[in-house]
Protein 1
Amino acid sequence: LYHRMYALNRSPVVRLNHAVAVAEACGADAGLQMLDDLESTGLLSSYAPYFVARSELLLRSGRHSEAMAALLAAREYAHSELEQANIARRLREFPPSSS
């Protein structure tokens, strides 16, 4: 469905949502590969939800320090109070580093 949606609306946000759906269906690493491809375009370089999604998938892959860095980037780009509150909650709940 995302392929069809992207054909109608070639939005980087559609691609982001597709990556999240792929991660749910095929695993975090598959979604991260799509996010890496999307990151190389620079189209979402200051879009907080991109970094929140990236953080979640990195966390699922056990890459805690990278996940924290992505979440801190999300905080930097968050514009609305709701986004800021969500990111602050995620930061408080972030698992302690195992390294």
Protein 2
Amino acid sequence: MLASFRWIALALVLAAAPAIAQTTPSAATPAAMPNTSATAAALSSGGETYKLGTGDKVRIIVYGEPDLGGEFVIDSGGYLRFPLVGQIKASDMTAHEVEGEIGAALKNGYVKDPHVNVEVETYRPFYIIGEVNKPGEYPYVTGLNAINAVALAGGYTYRADEDDVYIRRKGGTTEVKQPANQSTQVMPGDIVRIAERFF
């Protein structure tokens, strides 16, 4: 009789095991993992936070008005010249903000209900100077980092400090020292300087 009760108790425990396992949280659930795609999107220079600047080429579409769209380059003054409305301020604005500016200008007597889309077609170049074999201006590519930038410029000279890079953003005058590795992003318009090492 006692043996029968033991078998029944064991059967109940085994039957309940899957339900217990389902309610036990796992350390490896997707919610606990880092969201790498969100991180990549936040670092993307073409996202909503990217500020346009001189040399950027944008593609503009006005839905229902094919003659108004096309590719436009932001000039040295920070403007693009758009059909009908003339100069539109674009420098230091996001693509979404430029959409609003163009839409408002077109609505002022030109297009009844304009729907405008602005996308970055080609980013402005970056510059690399100092102890690299081919210093100069280079086309920007999405996801560019310090290692890629040095490679595009023909690699380091024998005098180069290969541990750090100095970056000036948006043509500013202040350099920021950063590690010369894949975690250091280079943005459109940056001036990257490779210093000489101290022996």
Protein 3
Amino acid sequence: MANFKYFAAPLALALAIGGATVPASAQNYPQDNTYERNWRPTPAANAMVRRDINDLRQAVNRSERRGRISHREWSRLRDDVRTIQSLYASYSRNGLTRNEVAALEWRINRARAMLRMERRDYDGRRG
């Protein structure tokens, strides 16, 4: 019990200081999901998705031209890019929602990761 007095004061001080701040996750946000309903994509967000798709397509083509990936790997990645482009065209007809932007970015990032893996395998074939 004698050791407790050495820890009680710093513990009380830490609790007092920590209680003065409110973490961002504890802030009050609307509970009725108005934040999600009021979200509107900006032209910049739309342009960002288009630019990411274009950059991915160029990176895939550049990797194949430079011989960093095989023709078969290029073909598979090119099909992935075409799928993403088609999905983007479908989504953007009625305006992109937050979930659609997230889904497109997730697919783009997955394709980028696959491209990185294929470039680093140095075997010139799929897998």
